[in-house]
Amino acid sequence: MYKFILAGAAALIVAPALNAQVHRDVQRSTTHNVNRNVNVNVNRNYHPGNWNRARVRAGVYHHPRGYTYRRWTVGRVLPRAYWAPTYYYPGYRALGLMAPPANFQWIRYGPDLLLVNIRTGNVVDIRYGVFG
After folding, report:
1. 14: Cβ–Cβ under 8 A, 6 or more apart, which residues?
2. What is the pLDDT of residues 74-97, one digit of tens each?
3. Does domain 41-132 have CATH number 3.40.190.10?
């Protein structure tokens, strides 16, 4: 009996005797360094561990017209109305966060701070409750 193993866009036909070794090789090739050319990995926090949960006293926050607060999760797309420089947060260093890479911005969203790819709107990191 033969097995089919999907590896990216290619399918491998594996004989039963070679099944375990080929499966390990496919797993290594598809899971190791998948995002080696990407600055931010969506599966991990962008800058884990150094934020000391400090709260920032900030002025009144106004959502764009027609929007209200909702709790965002990594991988979701932030509406384009929030991609404006008005919502960028330049004080990330005071929180112990690293500077965002090219085409990314820390965006204030109500009480939260989101790291967003400003080309696609994907949220790649979140710090809940920063602004109190």
Report:
1. 2, 3, 4, 5, 22, 23
2. 999 999 999 999 999 998 888 888
3. no
